[in-house]
Design goal:
CATH architecture of chain B: 3-Layer(aba) Sandwich
Shape of chain A: globular
Largest sheet of chain B: 5 strands, parallel
Helix content of chain B: 25-40%
CATH superfamily of the largest domain in chain A: Aspartate/ornithine carbamoyltransferase
Strand order of the largest sheet of chain B: 3-2-4-5-6
Order of helices and strands of chain A: HEHEHEHEHEHEEHEHHEHH
Oligomer: heterodimer
Number of strands of chain B: 8
Structural class of chain A: alpha/beta
CATH architecture of the largest domain in chain A: 3-Layer(aba) Sandwich
Shape of chain B: globular
Largest sheet of chain A: 5 strands, parallel
Number of helices of chain B: 3
Strand content of chain B: 25-35%
CATH topology of the largest domain in chain A: Rossmann fold
């Protein structure tokens, strides 16, 4: 069974069957990346360009590693050291890359919809590695894959997404992925960092972080995205940490054990304290490991859909 | 669709016994030997074989499943992606004698992929190939089995149907596809 889409632009337009197929394939790749020789030749005839107009550490390394583990040829492009500075448009940049016979484009861009725009205008498979505050589908897939791995399944689980929901593309993609797989979702944060009408997506809204922690099986803690905030949404980081930071004290007051996730990069002492981030409850580094397997699965399945 | 029975349950168990005896002749105490069944269909036959072999030699042999999906040369040349199966090998095959086991040898492409896939687990001293059914005159690659359950002369439009495994009746059929 192939994927229903030629591109991975967002979780919104893929099906639960697609997600399950990606998970099953990722299970096999997770076994591959734990072998003595962590490489398979599946994509040896494919060339992939990683086109990053925004900064990234994890996502870009993870994609590059996934591509290399599948034996694809990889080229990397980052806007800061390119002709974009000289005034070239997005479409021209990508068409120039494609003229060098590239089959797939992994793109990260500050403008929401940039990958969708490319998918309409170019022939290659497009994978969205984050578009502004819109979607970050591979992160949502690795998040839900990690929940499935830790708790056995996603359906019926309660997941609270805590922090800067307004500026987070991870939050939106996570909400879509979790709901498609049958989980209940709650968002929690200061009222200024919750988008208006977010409840229209079918999520619960909670302002009190302790209540959110008591409700959930999994807490996905998000970073405060200061770089996207043009105005002040809360008085100070210290105050945010006091009211919304996840620390050991808060978890000790719960009657149950919950799983803590974080998509990175972590701001220790702000949204999460070290005594939680480094504890057994946290699966933050498992998420990173699973990211490579999930991205291998997506590249493998999309490469196949191109034939 | 016409079917012809080429192995019934009784003949199959005689064949499995003979193949085990041949392995014992060549590998004596199996101290340096590992067996790999090829996913997805070869493992039903290899389960049967390894079960019988363990009873004969009264000891355990390192045995695993090898999946070749990610090593196939027809990736992106088919309409649907081949879905992967579990590889389950909890030992290293470095300097071991490996016996690859599959149910049917047809073009030889699966075995070529298996040779590649196997190398991710080390460099074996020697690799042998055992197949239950050897389809003659259909090879695309220069691959020939060391142990053969049964040779069958077939043409390309025919299929070999192996019914081994849980709930199956341990029979092998030659099927003529309607033109």
């Amino acid at each position: 069974m192939p994927l229903s889409q030629k591109h991975l632009l967002g979780i919104k337009n893929i099906t639960a069957d697609d997600i399950n197929l990606i998970f099953q394939t990722a299970d096999n790749f997770k076994e591959v990346i734990n072998r003595p020789i962590k490489k398979v030749p599946s994509l040896r005839d494919i060339t992939i360009a990683n086109v990053f107009f925004e900064n990234s550490t994890r996502t870009r390394l993870s994609f590059e590693l996934a591509e290399k583990r599948l034996s694809a040829d990889v080229i990397n492009f980052s806007a800061s050291s390119s002709s974009v500075k000289k005034g070239e448009t997005l479409l021209d940049t990508v068409n120039n890359i494609l003229a060098m016979k590239v089959d797939m484009i992994v793109v990260r861009h500050a403008s929401p919809g940039a990958p969708h725009f490319l998918a309409r205008h170019v022939d290659a498979n497009i994978i969205n590695a984050g578009d502004g505050t819109h979607e970050h589908p591979t992160q949502a897939l690795l998040d839900t894959f990690s929940i499935r791995e830790r708790l056995g399944e996603v359906a019926g689980k309660k997941v609270a997404i805590i922090g800067d929901i307004m500026h987070s593309r991870v939050a939106i993609s996570d909400i879509f992925a979790l709901q498609k797989l049958g989980a209940e979702v709650m968002v929690c944060g200061p009222i200024t960092l919750l988008p208006k009408h977010i409840e229209a997506l079918g999520v619960k809204v909670e302002l009190d972080v302790q209540k959110a922690l008591e409700w959930c099986d999994v807490a996905n803690v998000l970073r405060i995205q200061l770089e996207r905030q043009q105005i002040k949404y809360f008085p100070s980081l210290r105050e945010y940490s006091l009211y919304y930071g996840i620390n050991k004290n808060r978890l000790d007051n719960l009657k149950k054990e919950i799983t803590i996730m974080h998509p990175g990069p972590i701001n220790r002492g702000v949204e999460i304290n070290s005594d939680v981030a480094d504890s057994d409850h946290a699966i933050i580094l498992d998420q990173v490991e699973n990211g490579v397997a999930i991205r291998m699965a997506i590249l493998y399945l999309l490469a196949n859909s191109a034939s | 669709m016409q079917k012809r029975l080429i192995l019934n349950a009784e003949l199959l168990s005689i064949t499995v016994d003979r193949l085990c005896q041949q392995l014992i002749e060549n590998h004596s105490d199996f101290s340096n030997t590992v067996i790999l069944g090829l996913q997805p269909r070869g493992v039903h036959f290899s389960d049967l074989l390894v079960d019988h072999l363990k009873k004969l030699i009264k000891k355990d042999i390192p045995y695993g499943y090898l999946d070749t999906t990610f090593y196939r040369d027809d990736f992106r040349r088919r309409d649907t992606p081949s879905s992967a199966n579990a590889t389950n090998i909890d030992f290293i095959i470095e300097e071991k004698e490996v016996i690859l086991v599959d149910d049917v040898l047809f073009t030889g492409r699966s075995v070529r992929a298996a040779l590649d896939a196997m190398m991710a687990y080390g460099r074996p001293n020697k690799v042998e190939l055992m197949v239950l059914i050897n389809r003659k005159y259909t090879r695309d690659l220069p691959i020939s089995p060391d142990y053969i359950g049964k040779d069958v002369n077939t043409i390309e439009t025919q299929k070999v149907l192996v019914e081994i495994g849980e709930g199956k009746k341990n029979k092998v059929w030659l099927v003529n596809e309607e033109e």
